[in-house]
Amino acid sequence: MIKPAILATLTLALAFFALSARAADPAAGKKQYDATCIACHGPGGIAVAPIYPNLNGQKEQYLVTQLKAFRDGSRQNPIMEPMAKNLSDTEIADLSAFLAQLNPK
Questions:
Q1: How far is 77 from 52, CA to CA, in rounded Å?
Q2: Secondary structure (3-state) at 101
Q3: What is the pLDDT of residues 90-100, one digit of tens each?
Q4: Distance between CA 23 and CA 90 in Å, rounded?
Q5: How many CB atoms are located within 10 Å of the residue 95 CB?
Q6: Radius of gyration for the chain, computed over Cα atoms and rounded to the nearest angstrom
Q7: Is the pLDDT reported for residue 105 higher than 70?
Q8: From CA 91, how far away is CA 69, in angstroms rounded?
Q9: What is the C-alpha to C-alpha distance for residues 73 and 89, in angstroms, rounded to an integer?
Q10: For residue 53, what pLDDT is reported?
Q11: Euclidean distance between CA atoms 74 and 38, whole angstroms
Q12: Exposure string for 25-42, b = 16+ CB within 10 A, e = fewer
């Protein structure tokens, strides 16, 4: 049986973690996307040229993983590496949330 003091500590720690976790903000992601990504990946995530992928409707976690891989160099691409290099985890989460909510065409 768990002692009440330990249970209280665990409950408090979980509550603090839940309050400190920040949900991704699709509106902030759209703002970031419109400032940088739209030039290649196009309005609404539909690419402007066949060499760029469509991003609309991609799964959020997939986008997070790929952007972090570009950022840390584990996925190499001469165009995307410098674009992702300075993105924070928050910006990556916001961009990914924005793109994931778009409907694929």
A1: 12
A2: helix
A3: 999 999 999 99
A4: 9
A5: 28
A6: 18
A7: no
A8: 14
A9: 15
A10: 95
A11: 24
A12: bbebbbebbeeebeebbb
